[in-house]
Amino acid sequence: HGGAIPPEISNNLKQLNTKVTTLGNQVTELQQTVQTVSCSSDPCQNGGTCLNLLNSYHCLCPSSWAGANCASDVNECQTFEGTLQGCQNGATCVNSPGTFICQCSPEWSGNLCTVRYDDCRNGGQDLCVHGLCIDSDRVVSGQPKYQCICESGWEAPAGNPACVSDVDECNLPTKPCSSNPPVPCYNTQGSFYCGACPAGWQGNGYSCQDVDECLTNNGGCSTTPMVQCMNTMGSFHCGPCPPGYEGDGRTCTQSNICSSNNGGCHPLAICSSNPGSAFPLCTCPQGYTGNGYGPSGCTQISNICETNNPCVNGHCTSTTSGYICNCNPGWQGIHCDQNINECLSNPCQNGGTCTDSVNGFTCTCTAQWTGPFCQTQQQECGGQLTGPAGSFSYPNNPGHDEYDHLVSCTWVVRTDPNKVLRITFPFFHLESSNNCNFDFLQIHDGDNPSAYILGKYCGQNNPQELYSSHNSLYFWFRSDHSINAGGFTIVWESKDPVCGGDLTASYGNINSPGYPGNYPPGRDCYWTLSVDPGLLITFAFGTLSLEQHPDCNYDFLEVQKATLTSGIPGL
């Protein structure tokens, strides 16, 4: 044995090897026969892959073809309809052999129409220049479509959507700068600016307020003696110098009453001015006696009448027996030292009170009467008037009577706190003058002279109706020393205050009630601003002066943004 393979096993192995070799040859022949019969004729079309089967084959077709031999076209338009593999965004699908084509709408591109055109290209500054580019849906293929919303101060010229044309704000129907007083407007590229307010006014040029010169150093009018300073719109003027002074009101110098005819004193008397009086002081020289006034004011002393003058209030005449006193008017008694009481005859009429004085009397009249004897009915001048409606006149019968010279009086008309006043002028006739510097009626929007001046009127033309912004008005009437006229009648009635509103103009301004004066309390005003689609609204605050507090819980101005039906944002 010695490890050798037994003969019978060796023979079996040889036989097995022969059988395996024969089986392999048979399998190879079978494979060649199958391939020759199945795929040798290349039956799969349109790029299909052929798989051999026993006495048969199978075609693996591309996605665009179907059928046993991949000869039937697949209609992708039906297969992919409503899926992300088909045409998108309203495109039209067109099937073709082995594929399909998407015909996009004008706003879309790409194989499946999934890429949207952006005609503004990174904000569109190169397209709109001075504006905001808003992309729009294309209507015609190949033609870009967009809209420019111009910045303030720019607009798009005809035929060009770009914002390259400057808006001349100074030539708009509503001028941006102050018109009362007029302030020049200067246009610049994309903007504008206002000149300075004229002399007598203050502000930024958008709006100008009158400077009350009288509040500082009496406006430059005399303070010694004191002269009344009267403020006017854009200016002021000084009243007349008081008696005993002369000048233009800015400068008043004491009158030299003695320069003419010795001031009315006796030629020998010494004349000197008497501050605060229209008459001088006359002093007779040494050796003379008398009051110094007039041709007989000084008499040379030569007798008892001249040395001692026993007549206190009269003229002493020497006689052989002594002297006789000839009393001055208003005095009686041996020495003219007893005052005559002129009130004993009851000279004051209509309830007037008589006060005796030297050589005369004074009547203190009731409010309804005037004159030296209270014989003339008083012209009512000034007062406090209240009520929802009413009227007042000066003088009492304007047009029939004429007002007096050198009148300065005021009225205050007041209605309910939640109402305003409407004023009309049925009759108006004052002296005419440039700028109403002589006789005038001045009206303030409030109950005191520091309130804003609504107007200053003179002449014969009836002023237009006025509305207050508060529940009170202050009226000041003044006449000078020369020409007078028929006066005026004023009628008032109460109205509900109105503020706010709907504004649609392309340019304009918003003012608080009473501007440029103070706004009244208790108002709640709403303004709605609307513009055409495609436009923006910008604000420039010429003046903003409100009550200051940390949370703006009391007086405030609030700006809110709304959305219009067009989808364009507004304010």
Automatic annotation (TrEMBL):
Disulfide bonds join 61-70, 104-113, 265-282, 327-336, 365-374. It comes from the Eukaryota. Residues 35-71, 73-114, 254-299, 301-337, 339-375 form the EGF-like domain. Residues 381-495, 499-571 form the CUB domain. Coiled coil: none annotated. Keywords: Disulfide bond, EGF-like domain, Glycoprotein, Repeat, Signal. GO terms for molecular function: calcium ion binding. CDD domains: CUB, EGF_CA. SMART domains: CUB, EGF, EGF_CA. InterPro entries: CUB_dom, Cubilin_domain, EGF, EGF-like_Ca-bd_dom, EGF-like_CS, EGF-type_Asp/Asn_hydroxyl_site, EGF_Ca-bd_CS, NELL2-like_EGF. This is CUBN. The lineage of its organism: Eukaryota, Metazoa, Chordata, Craniata, Vertebrata. The gene is CUBN.
